[in-house]
Design goal:
137 residues; mainly alpha; 7 helices; 55% helix
Amino acid sequence: MKKFIAFLIVVLIGIQFISVEQTNPPVEAEIYAPTEVKAIFKKACYDCHSNETNWVWYTKVAPISFLLTSHVKDSRKHLNFSEWGLYDPKKAEKKIEEIWEEVRDEEMPPWLYRVGHSEAKLTPEEKNTIRNWATSK
């Protein structure tokens, strides 16, 4: 058992030297939305769904760094508020519908993100603001 623990410690230390590319590409064409909607997105969504990720210290510690970097990369592919203006109108409309569905069903922001970022938990008023924005399109 002691050998296993020693091996595990060596592995955990060793993987710290494997770097992952945590980037914030330039903002290409940010979403145009009312100020209150954009403020909600910035506090609850931008860390994963924009080119403005706040790469805090723990995002640089392996193996968390591997998981979070991959998650942000995938999230940006699915929806990127920093490239919203590059979406064609039909795609943007579909994304707006998806945003409201995810918020309504409490799938976004994910529960695990909310655990570490209590400010990301949306209030009923904030959800209503997003709903009103999404359904007015």
